[in-house]
Amino acid sequence: ACMLDPHSVRFRLYLARPDGQAYGDVPAFLDAMARAGTVPLIAMNAGMYHADMTPVGLFVDEGRETAALELADGDGNFYLKPNGVFFIESSGRAGVMETQAYAGSGLTARLATQSGPMLVIDGEVHPKFLADGTSRYIRNGVGVRADGAVVLAISREAVSLGAFARAFRDGFGCPDALFLDGGISAFAANGQMVTGGADKAGPILAVFAK
Question: What pLDDT is stored for residue 60 in this prediction?
Answer without folding.
Answer: 98
